[in-house]
Amino acid sequence: MEMTAAEALVKCLEKEQLEVIFGYPGGATLPVHDALHHSSIRHILVRHEQGAVHAADGYARATGRVGVCLATSGPGATNLITGIANAYMDSVPLVLFTGQVPTSQVGTDAFQEVDITGITMPITKHNYLVKDAAQLPRIIKNAFHIASTGRPGPVLIDLPKDVAQTMIEFNYPETVQLRGYKPTYRGHAGKIAEAARLIARSSRPVIYAGGGIINSRASKELLALAETINAPVTNTFMGLSSFPGDHPLFLGMLGLHGTRTANLAVTNCDLLIALGARFDDRVTGKIAEFAPRAGVIHVDIDPAEIGKNVQVHVPIVGDVKMVLQELLPRLEKRSDTRWLEQIEAWKKEHPLRYETGAEELKPQYVIEKLYEITRGDAYVATDVGQHQMWVAQYYRFKRPGGLISSGGLGTMGFGLPAAMGAQIGLPGERVVLVTGDGSIQMTMQELGTIMEQELPIKIIILNNHVLGMVRQLQKVYCEGRYMAVDFKFHPDFETLARAYRIKGYTLRNKEDVDNLLPEALESPGAVLVNCLVSAEENVNPMVLAGKSISEAIDC
Amino acid sequence: MRHTLAVLVENNPGVLARVAGLFSRRGFNIDSLAVGRTENPDVSRMTIVVEGDARVLEQVTKQLHKLVDVIKINDITADEYVDRELVLIKVNVGPAQRGEVMQIADVFRARIVDLGRKTLTLECTGNDGKINAFEESLRPYGIKELVRTGKIAMLRGFKYTGYHDNGTKEDN
Ligand SMILES: Cc1ncc(C[n+]2csc(CCOP(=O)(O)OP(=O)(O)O)c2C)c(N)n1
To answer: Which one of A71, A263, A428, A461 is CB 3.0 to 4.6 Å from A549, fit for a cystine?
Structure first.
């Protein structure tokens, strides 16, 4: 069938069974937006392209499907960049379409021209500039395949306007042909056997599980592994929600703001089983003292992560779910309790703590209440800062994928649009955003989108009137000389919510939280809860720069 | 240590930028990089000489593999191979010294490709060591301009770095 490449693009997306596209139009996307008229695909008009890409990202994390966005050339494309980098760092599958100036003008500094394929080369898994309209269906097929397989990531397709208008014969390829792209899924049988032997011989094993567990949907296998060998489990920030937060074998998060128990367990273990995690600097602290006495088994889909930061004894490249499925039958049930007794002793000695008797409202209390009310079952999106770490510490996730947060890039402004995307992907689920008064102001124009789309998102602002996380850093590293972290003016968030016809609450103390938070969370539509919390509160424990994770301090 | 990598890549626009960008972004040092097409018009071959220890080389190889346009990587350093580089050198020589320089050229089997009133341009091929030696011998006469292609290399004998679609991305 003959059609324009723009129409073919929409047909390809329908063939990929895409339901929604997050976009913002411009001159260069006229042909594609025009072609969307007759499509079943729902176009969500955001308020800023950064909102589109974060929403597609939140959608992808919540549903496990590829998130798609569409932006115009020039400023439309550059507004996507933070979101692309964010998805790249956290391995989120996205396909991004950008309009481009007509081919004849490419390279001439034409109006609204930027070299977006050049700019995004280091932050995409792959990208394409479409020069031949006939190739577009093949490129889209490849893009979805590359984005969603192996270690997932964003793929960008830049489409010049004249190419979009060219007539082509539509033909969606059934298969991909990429001789340079063949991810390894099955782990090496010999290495898996070696891992099983190492596990049998160890007496103090720790499982260190990252975001790979969520991506490969291996939570069931992770639980089976932990319970079979009776090993405690710690999560990276990205791994949170992959293991039940209330399980007796769970140690909480490790690293910079990890629990003391998790960090002590890793420091003293004799075997570290790293699953879909990448030994990031926020996790390891001083690398020479990270798990210094341990043999290391490292399972990851990305071979480049293995041996990158630490020496590994048993490297296994593969999909973590498939590897665990092969490993489990080789393992004997273990019941040695000495190590677990030690862990229990640490847990008793070093629980997460904050001052519970205080007058003012403590942010940790709000998260504990949120956990109680939602029973760990909500999808919780966050922004970046102290509030994010308190969610990581105090919300005990039950549902794999329940945490939707920017880990690798730490992008303030991610939360609101990401929550939006998650709610669009999962209309029947409870989506809560926990944000800070700094972060929400980076992308709060999306409140408009939320109301337009009638999304019942519950927004909780832990409003400390400061850029809390940076303030904490200044307290610790700059001897309390606070610079550029105090907001002298804030809008009244409750009134602001009302301007968007969103129900607003302001909570000032524990009683307010006890009385009103349940009601706010049970309200049918979108709700904004402005919690006025103490500015002095810090995230504890904390590992100082260059220190071993076993030497956390309270600040 | 210096390693010589033979890298087969898709002959797509931007592939050189992807490879070069990867090296600079991750702080890998390229000594030289030569690229051109192969017996197969849609496959290009890069010969990359890179400096680093075993760990760096492992990262270089693995990160290169992640590029979708990279088809195959072969670290041929430890194998028997032939390598060649071509250099063009323009030296300051008037008629009086021409004879001397031509003698040097003879020793290195270099050729004279251009003759000016006060200059001579020579072409020489060989491996790294030979090219360096040639350059040193001409230095006393005053080198006005020098350009090297970077090294290209090929395994000796029956072994080869070709692309054959057997369904896997190989890494020898
Ligand atoms: C886009 C961006 N700019 C700057 C930072 C640096 N930064 C990290 S946390 C933080 C403070 C966040 O403040 P807020 O959202 O109010 O959260 P709080 O830490 O107070 O809970 C800042 C400025 C960042 N992570 N992202």
So the answer is: A263
Predicted TM-score (pTM) of the model is 0.96
Q: Is residue A176 within 8 Å of A115, Cβ to Cβ?
A: no
Give the tens place of pLDDT for each residue, A194-236: 999 999 999 999 999 999 999 999 999 999 999 999 999 999 9
pLDDT score of B169 more than 50: no
Rounded distance, CA B76 to CA B74, Å?
6
Whole-number Å distance between alpha carbons of A242 and A265: 19
Q: Would you say A274 and A299 are in contact if contact means Cβ atoms under 8 Å apart?
A: yes
When pLDDT is cut at 50, 70 and 90, the band that residue A378 belongs to is very high
Question: Any idea where the domains of chain B sit in the sequence?
Answer: 2-80, 82-152
Distance of alpha carbon B131 from alpha carbon A283, whole angstroms? 49
Q: Which of B10, B66, B73, B166 to mutate to test the interface with A (most CBs of A within 10 A)?
A: B66
Question: What's the confidence (pLDDT) of residue B163?
Answer: 73
On whether the CB atoms of residues A58 and A420 are closer than 8 A, the answer is yes
Distance CA B85, CA B146 (A): 13
Q: Does domain A2-169 have CATH number 3.40.50.1240?
A: no
Band (pLDDT 50/70/90 cuts) for residue A468 is: very high
The span from the CA of A205 to the CA of A296, in Å, is: 10
The rounded distance, in Å, linking the Cα atoms of A242 and A214 is 6
Check if A180 contacts B (Cβ < 8 Å): yes
Q: Which of A43, A141, A123, A137 is nearest to A80 (CA)?
A: A123
Evaluate whether A69 touches A41 at the Cβ level (below 8 Å).
no
**Per-residue model confidence as pLDDT tens digits over A57-71:** 999 999 999 999 999
Flag whether pLDDT at B166 surpasses 50.
no
A161 in active site: yes
A49 carries an active-site annotation: yes
Q: Do A122 and B67 touch (CB under 8 A)?
A: no
Question: Which of A121, A126, A180 faces B71 most closely, judged by CB atoms?
Answer: A180
Q: According to the model, what pLDDT value does residue B160 have? A: 82
Window 45-64 of B, Cβ < 8 Å to A: 55, 58-59, 62-63
Chain B residues in contact with A308 by the CB 8 A cut-off are: 59
- Indicate left, alpha or beta for A546 from its phi (over 0: left) and psi (-120 to 50: alpha): left
**Cross-strand partners of A4:** A167
Q: Over 90: is that where the pLDDT of A250 sits?
A: yes
Structure tokens at B164: 């054959």
CATH dotted code for A363-532: 3.40.50.970
Question: What is the CATH number assigned to the segment(s) B2-80?
Answer: 3.30.70.260
Rounded-to-integer distance, Cα A306 and Cα A300, Å: 7
